[in-house]
Design goal:
single chain, 507 residues, alpha+beta, eight-stranded mixed β-sheet, three-stranded mixed β-sheet, 14 helices
């Protein structure tokens, strides 16, 4: 067994044939993620053709994504390309992909005006971290002149001002090309809904890219943009990163966004193909140095391998293919000189702390939609339950947070970093939660995604790294204590140097 007390792991102890007993898994369908838009684009029917695994819309040039965020910024500064050229390429690719991939809720044609302004600034010698580089943002944050619907149906008014996150992107010179799809209030690890249809996974169009930042993940994975912003309320950056072969970073609570988002469980994060690009985008959003951590040696670390999820009240079993991929990554880390031990955090009943925050956040958002009756019946049910939990439940959650941080944090007396699966399953099929009742939906998403959400309660950093293609993408989490982003970024970059996941694309 790969559980129990920490011990050195070597030889057959990393044999993927070992099995954890299925763990009883208190989690709801509500795993929200941020703030939200009206559909500007036609979308495929909610039940389009499944099982398609070719991407006729991906341009053979792929200039923007192949170069990446940093390389695009360098090319622009050197004058070897222009922001107009890059932005035109991006907008073209998005238009071509939309009927098939459906990653975007809206596209900003004004991005070409922004690109022209960036080219003038570059010509005048101005230099900013992302000057002229195209990026995408999730449909849960405000950008002036665009609606914010957070995945919901209805006629939403245009935002009158940029939120702080968008302001930082613009201050760094980024050209924001559009807003990406997310499920209603970011509740589910699939990106589907009546407002926009189905967002599909570039690795297999019959599968979901995950959620709730599924549109951002699909756009980066397909090469439409070099990087994108998402948000993470229960794994909403890490889950789609895992299922689309990307790096996804959930930073420390309050590092990037309001620490009270969804009563403290949600923070904005980043998705990119490389650790360096993710670290650069995080640096821009946080206003703190992270990019240089991707070039730093993490040193020899004691890494705890944990395959046991927190208790949730649902029976959970780790897919053997996912288990094999994560254990293989543990072997890679050991070959890099790190010590690997088995170390399972003592989560206790941490789900009791998560529920009032997530469902209370869903309830809060009901008042911001033009017509709540257009919402999914499961969203309405979650909102009603959230209203009941907001009072005493939230007060209890706030009072017990430090207790859970101390309890789980004891694992870091024994290890420096935790390595866990990001999900328990491969990417779910499109329509996997269609027609399910609320409790059935809860059980389905908990069984697929039981590993990410405790770190949202704790508010500590987490990074998804690609764990391989089996044959679809799966991921592993690097989890740290408070304020450990730099250590996690350094370790992820060291892994990338030997795994070279950025060189693998959807066919």
């Amino acid at each position: 067994m790969l559980d129990g007390d920490p011990r050195h792991v070597r030889g057959d102890a990393l044999d993927p044939g070992d099995r954890d007993a299925p763990q009883p898994g208190l989690l709801p369908a509500g795993a929200p993620a941020g703030l939200g838009l009206r559909a500007h684009l036609p979308h495929p029917r909610a039940r389009g053709p499944g099982g398609v695994n070719r991407l006729p819309f991906v341009r053979t040039n792929r200039e923007v994504a192949v170069l990446g965020l940093e390389a695009n910024a360098r090319a622009l500064a050197a004058g070897s390309t222009t922001s107009i050229a890059l932005t035109t390429e991006v907008l073209d690719s998005i238009r071509q992909s939309q009927p098939t991939l459906n990653a975007f809720r809206s596209v900003r044609e004004v991005a070409l005006t922004d690109a022209a302004a960036a080219d003038r600034a570059l010509g005048a010698g101005k230099r900013l971290p992302l000057l002229g580089v195209p990026v995408a943002i999730k449909d849960d944050v405000d950008i002036a002149g665009e609606p914010t619907a957070f995945g919901c149906p209805g006629d939403f008014p245009a935002a009158t001002a940029d939120c702080a996150l968008v302001g930082r992107l613009k201050a760094a010179g980024a050209v924001i090309v559009g807003k990406t799809n997310t499920p209603e209030f970011g509740q589910w690890p699939v990106t589907e809904g009546s407002a926009f249809g189905v967002t599909r996974n570039p690795w297999d169009l019959g599968r979901t890219p995950g959620g709730s930042s599924g549109g951002s993940a699909a756009a980066v994975a397909a090469g439409l943009v070099p990087a994108a912003v998402g948000s993470d309320g229960a794994g909403s950056v890490r889950i789609p990163a895992a299922w689309t072969h990307l790096v996804g970073v959930k930073p420390q609570r309050g590092r990037v966004s309001n620490p009270d988002l969804f009563h403290g469980i949600t923070t904005d994060g980043v998705l990119a193909r490389t650790v360096g690009d993710a670290a650069l985008l995080l640096e821009v959003l946080a206003g703190a140095p992270f990019r240089d951590a991707a070039d730093a040696d993490p040193g020899r670390l004691r890494i705890g391998l944990s395959l046991r999820p927190a208790f949730t009240g649902v029976r959970v079993a780790l897919d053997p293919l996912v288990r094999t991929a994560v254990v293989r990554l543990a072997r890679v880390l050991r070959s890099l000189g790190h010590e690997i031990v088995v170390a399972n955090p003592d989560y206790g009943l941490i789900g009791l702390n998560f529920l009032p925050r997530s469902l209370g956040g869903v309830h809060d958002w009901h008042g911001r939609v033009p017509d709540p009756l257009l919402l999914d019946t499961r969203t309405l049910s979650n909102g009603r339950l959230g209203a009941l939990l907001r009072g005493r439940g939230l007060r209890t959650a706030n009072a017990t947070l430090r207790l859970f941080q101390r309890r789980v944090g004891r694992v870091f007396d024994r290890v420096d970093v935790l390595l866990t699966p990001t999900t328990a399953s491969l990417p779910l099929p499109v329509g996997a939660i269609d027609g399910l009742r609320g409790w059935q939906t809860d059980q389905a998403i908990i069984r697929a995604c039981p590993y990410a959400w405790p770190w949202n309660v704790l508010g500590w950093p987490a990074v998804n790294v690609p764990a391989g293609l089996v044959p679809l993408p799966v991921g592993a989490q690097l989890l740290g204590r408070a304020d450990s982003e730099r250590q996690l970024i350094s370790l992820a970059a060291q892994l990338e140097s030997v795994e070279r996941w950025d060189q693998r694309w959807p066919s």
